[in-house]
Automatic annotation (TrEMBL):
Signal peptide: none
Native source species: Empedobacter falsenii
GO molecular function: ATP binding; ATP-dependent diacylglycerol kinase activity
Domain DAGKc: 1-127
Record EC number: 2.7.1.107
UniProt keyword Metal-binding present: no
Source lineage: Bacteria, Pseudomonadati, Bacteroidota, Flavobacteriia, Flavobacteriales
Pfam families xrefs: DAGK_cat (PF00781), YegS_C (PF19279)
Protein name, per record: Diacylglycerol kinase
Length: 290
């Protein structure tokens, strides 16, 4: 078997120690181990293309949610399975798949070669495997990236700072034959049941049900915002009366405040020049080992 490991050396504040010697010591001598390190954003996608051309049997993403997204995106609808060694801060998808942060245990899962297919979310020309967020969710990620503290403390700090200044945005949603137009405080679309750091906004989400879970929360007053924050930390967001869930296969979202749409995708901020984007699920589009 030929295993290619795509490693982000800076994931998790560079606290991991995944080297070629370490990896070779964990596999049989008959296995071929290749390690490729990323050097810049989106480099992982290029390295995956190289690995495919080099006839890799398994391609493993070693890093955080951003690295995993890049590697997985290049493997959508391909016949090569994805392995994961979570080495980031949030690790949303890996947590949903019960892949531990311990590299030794994660490697044992990879060696098991237990291949499954999962659904993939798509927004315009980009893929997501864990979640997609608009409104305050995108603003939190923007603040989180700016303060550069890639820890749960940094995420909480970013959330608090955003909460103090955020105002709901006017969106129009097109879901099947239904049109919903409201000032939304929170719009969150999830493929997995974990968003990162063990936080769950969509506990009933299933990676292989052929649907996405859409959470819609309209405008909240100050007290409701505080209550919302408490429920998020307690993993009981379903107790919020204004939290509305819907299973969807596709939808379109349109900004009505004349500002281009910004969203977070698997924990990474994306800015657009458009007032609307389309989102859909692609069933069973990624082979993954877990």
């Amino acid at each position: 078997m030929k295993y290619t490991f795509i490693v982000n050396p800076n994931s998790g504040n560079a606290k991991h120690d995944i080297s070629l010697d370490f990896l070779q010591s964990k596999f049989d001598s008959s296995d071929e181990i290749v390690l490729k390190e990323t050097a810049y954003q989106f480099h992982a996608k290029e390295l995956v293309k190289e690995a495919i051309a080099e006839n890799s049997d398994v391609i493993v993403a070693c890093g955080g949610d951003g690295t995993i997204n890049e590697v997985a995106s290049a493997l959508v609808k391909k016949n090569i399975p994805l392995g994961i060694i979570p080495a980031g801060s949030g690790n949303g998808l890996a947590t949903n798949l019960n892949i531990p942060k311990d590299a030794n245990k994660a490697i044992e899962i990879i060696k098991s070669n237990a291949i499954h297919k999962i659904d993939v979310g798509r927004v315009e020309d980009k893929y997501f495997f864990s979640n997609l967020g608009f409104g305050i969710d995108a603003e939190v990620i923007k603040t989180y990236e700016e303060n550069q503290k890639r820890t749960i403390t940094g995420y909480v700090d970013a959330s608090v700072k955003t909460l103090l200044n955020y105002k709901s945005k006017l969106f129009r949603l097109y879901i099947d034959d239904v049109i919903i137009e409201k000032n939304f405080y929170y719009l969150f679309c999830s493929n997995s049941n974990i968003a990162g750091y063990g936080i769950s906004f969509t506990p009933k989400a299933d990676l292989s049900d052929g649907e996405l879970d859409l959470l819609m929360i309209e405008d909240l007053d100050v007290f409701e915002q505080f209550y919302f924050s408490v429920l998020v930390l307690a993993k009981k967001i379903d107790l919020l009366d204004k939290a509305k869930y819907r299973k969807v296969k596709k939808f379109k979202i349109e900004s009505l405040d004349h500002n281009p749409i910004t969203y977070q995708l698997d924990g990474e901020l994306h800015n657009t020049d458009s007032l609307q984007v389309k989102v859909k699920v692609i069933p069973n589009a990624l082979k993954i080992i877990f």
